[in-house]
Structures are given as structure tokens and as C-alpha cells.
């Protein structure tokens, strides 16, 4: 076939696809940019920071709009009022979780994060109850975090005020808290297997936020047939799952149903209780997938936020100094901080909240899903539509934040210097799908950061001006650039 004939055929096929999309387009969809066949809107998106494109489009199409990621229809919700109306006021309609292809590939639809219906309801209720029973958000957990803070201080002291990369020391500390809850043990910072697991967890989040990871989620049928980093990450995830299987077997061999030690024990007891129920959600696949969910979420999100926090405190040394003066006045440098101290540390509390707002860790949110047709603000959202309640637009909403693009702790302080809440503070999302570990994360951020500032002043070799606080990756997550930290004992 000659070139003109080929081009003509290609043009006819494209026209046919456009016609089919137009004829099959559901009525009463929210407005949005014109989408091309097969590729949708991805050619006009910022693939390094897609949430920026959505925010830009919303100025033209409004706070409720339709876009296409490849052939997949996506509903984008922009701004605090819109996101709150969907996730909180219409929680039952927006409770669905999208079957994100890469997450589905590694977890097969099992576990807490991407499941729906009865599976999600049972696993969330069980997880919340069990984690609370073992101290999440309570005094028992507070003492664990205080103890782990001392281990972190010891390892940082060994740097002798020399530059070091804080990434995996922070990951070890934070991960040990979720490991105590889930596996019933903490791991030594010198444990090479523990470090390997943390490296894998980090690579999973980095891949999911990369352009290649986003492309996988748009065209999984294509990327699965190509060589690439996704194959390595999938193999690495199997290492984490194999580790979890070994831990589960160890628990089975030593299980005392009358004295459960941790999350795994409680799950195994429930699994045994429901072994004759053919419809039970308490089975081995859901256990392994939920352990992976808890291990990843309980490690990377909080440790990355602390890494960002230290970077911002170096960038703003006057804020770091003011926090230290407040901490010295209220707690001193010897006693471990407790959550009871938070109300007496309004500036410190405001800074920690502002770090979470400014970091904007998960700008796109974990995607929701229309499990049934939804009526919202006069529009009809068809079943099968992915829903992105844009957390970035909430944490940068100009109607709710005086200086949304600036790191400014005054966002959380009143005129008298007292801490004040802001309804648009949604780093953990909102509604029925809000983060299960929110209370744990809040406790970890406060105790770890206050403990670190009690004992160290933080700088970097090139000074504050050398730090680039813009994210290295801005896909699913905003991930900070690597930097060298100097921790000088006080």
C-alpha cells in the first residue's frame, strides 16, 4: 500500500473512532478538554506533574470536569468545597476505590487499599479495631515511638555531625513502629534484610509516581508486553510478600489464640474462626495483601514527610530556631515528648501541620471509583468512571489559605499565637476512605520531629540556598530530592 493510501486509511480509522466515541458518549457528563481516540488527553498533560494540568484545566472547565487518561474516563474534582461535598457529604456514592492496574497486578485485588464492597468493609473494620487494640493513637503506641526516637537519636549521633543521607535512617525508625504493630517486633538498624525491604518499598512508591508507572496504569495491556522497570518492581514486591509469608508461618507455629501478640495473630484467629464460611474475607491472600498495604503506607508516607520537614527547617532556619526555643521552654532537652505536650506547643504544632499541607504528599489522592451511576452537582457520572478528588487543589485552595503557595506556619495560628484548625487540611483525604493510619501518623510526626529538634540542629553542607525543595518526582506522590543532612548535637 502506498503512503497516500495508508494515510487515508489511518484518517478513516481515526474518524471512525471519534464517531464511535461521540455516539457512545454518555449524556450529561461534566465538561472537559477534547480527548483524542485511544490516547485521550495524555498528550496535552504534564506527565511529570499531572495534577498541575488538572488544576489549569479547572480554570476553564470548572471544579467538576471530565478528562480521559487513554481510553479511561476520569472525573476530576477540584477545590475544598467540591472534594468535601463528594467524599464527606456524599460519602456512600464516592466510597469506591479504582482498580489501579499496577496495584491490581501486584495484589490481585486483595487487601485493604484497592478493594470494594464487603471485602473492603470487613477488612477496614477489622484493621481499625485491631490496630487500636494494639495501641494505635494511644499511650501504648506513644511509648513505642518514644523508644524508637531514642534509637534514631543514637544512630544520628554516630554521624558525628558529618553529612549523611537521612532517607533510610528515617525509614527504619518509622517502619519499626508499624512492624511492632503488624509483626510484633522491631528490627535492628543494621539488619540487612530490613534495609532491603525498605529499599523495595521505596522503589514501589517511586515507580508508581514515575512517568513509566503512570503509563503502566493508562496502558497496562501494552506495558505488560514490553521490557522495563515494572518487571523489576513486580519481582521485588514478591520478595516483600515472601517475607510476609515467612512471618505468617512463624506466627501460625507459635499462635496462642487466647493471647494474640499483634495484627497477624488476630487475623489468623479470625481466619480460623471463619474457616467453614465459603464467603469469608479472612483468608491468606487478603492477609498477605493487607500486610503489604500496612507496611508500605506505614513506612513511606510518614518517613517521607519527616524528610521533607527537615529540609524545610533547614531552608527556614528562623522557624527551626523558634521551634527549638518553644520545645526547650515546655519540655526541656531531657524528657521525651508526649502527645499531651502538643497543646502547649502551638507553634511547633502549626509547623508540623504546615509541612503536611505544603508537602502535598499525595496530590492526586488514591483514585476513587464509580461502582454505580452517580448524580453529582447536576451531572451524571457513569459506572466505571475513575474519580480523582484532587487533594492538591484542597491544600492549595486560595479561598482557604492566605498564602497557599508559600511555606507559612501562620496558616495554623490565630492572631494570639494559638493553634487553629482549618477544614481544608486534608493530607489524609476525607470520608470513608480516609487513611486508616491517620492517628498513628500524627503521633509519629509529632514525637519524632520534637525529639529530633530537642537534640539536634539541622543544616546542610551548602547552606539553605543549596537545597531545592521542589519534588524530584510528582506523579502519584510528591517525592523529595536526596540531600545531605548535618545533625549537630545541641
From TrEMBL:
Q: Which UniProt keywords apply?
A: Endoplasmic reticulum, Heme, Iron, Membrane, Metal-binding, Microsome, Monooxygenase, Oxidoreductase, Signal
Q: Name one GO molecular function term.
A: heme binding
Task: List the InterPro entries hit by this protein, alphabetically.
Answer: Cyt_P450, Cyt_P450_CS, Cyt_P450_E_grp-I, Cyt_P450_E_grp-I_CYP2B-like, Cyt_P450_sf, Cytochrome_P450_fam2
List, separated by semicolons, the cofactors it needs.
heme
Q: Name one GO cellular component term.
A: endoplasmic reticulum membrane
Signal sequence annotation: 1-15
Q: Name one GO biological process term.
A: organic acid metabolic process
- Sorted alphabetically, which CDD domains does this protein's record hold? CYP2 (cd11026)
The positions annotated for binding heme are: 435
* Localisation: Endoplasmic reticulum membrane; Microsome membrane
Provide the topology term for how it sits in the membrane.
Peripheral membrane protein
The similarity comment for this entry is: Belongs to the cytochrome P450 family.
What protein name is recorded for this chain? Answer: Cytochrome P450
Q: Which organism is it from?
A: Hemibagrus wyckioides
